Amino acid sequence: RATRGLYRVHQFTKVEMFAFTAPDQSDAMHQRLLDLECKIFDGLGIPYRVVDTATGDLGGPAYRKYDLEAWMPGRGEAGEWGEVTSTSNCTDYQARRLAIRFRKPTEKGTQFVHTLNGTAVAISRAMVAILENYQQEDGSVKVPEALVSWMGKSVMTASSGQKVTT
Predict the structure, then answer these.
(1) How far is the C-alpha of 82 from the C-alpha of 99, rounded, in Å?
(2) In the CATH scheme, what architecture does the domain 14-134 have?
(3) How far is it, in rounded angstroms, from Cα 133 to Cα 124?
């Protein structure tokens, strides 16, 4: 388990996704959030796996949680998987505490919404995955195709001409 470095920082930037759904739509929305996370890492060309978190490892509000773990060849002796995103279905746990309800037009009374959340991308962890999966033998780092237009280059090299190390 990484305890130092860019993977385990105390403050970081991430893009979060949130959804409120009717109870009968929350499982489908949970899958949609997971699919969006997968699409991002597919687009980056980062090898990953989806882990369906065991019930005993879930936090209090979560009914079900998926983690995306990216392959990080620089971790451990021969590389390890590292969590880069997660998505949780909290059903009505949070909605009950926050009194968030909705009304179906065809029914009397109200129901609690289901709340879901997911990390689209945690910037520092995505950077680690990119650096570790795209570093070349000379120390340069290939830029994932999806980011080339944003970076303005296809390869990152050390500006001083020294070997890039991660």
Answers:
(1) 36
(2) 2-Layer Sandwich (3.30)
(3) 14
13, 135 Cβ separation under 8 angstroms:
no
Count of residues in the chain: 166
- Is 70 exceeded by the pLDDT of residue 6? no
Indicate whether 164 pLDDT > 60: no
Any alpha helices (H) in 45-140, and if so which ranges?
A: 93-98, 123-134
- Residue ranges of the chain assigned to CATH 3.30.930.10: 14-134
The residues, ordered by sequence, that sit 6+ positions from 151 with a Cβ below 8 Å of its Cβ are 143
Residue 24 vs residues 53, 94, 112, 130, 165: alpha-carbon distances, Å: 22, 17, 11, 37, 49
CB of 85 closer than 8 Å to CB of 67: yes
Q: Decide if 62 contacts 89 (C-beta within 8 A).
A: yes
pLDDT at 30 over 80: yes
CB 164 within 8 A of CB 158: yes
Kindly report, residue by residue over 68-116, the tens digit of the pLDDT.
999 999 888 888 999 999 999 999 999 999 999 999 999 999 999 999 9
Rg (CA), the chain: 19
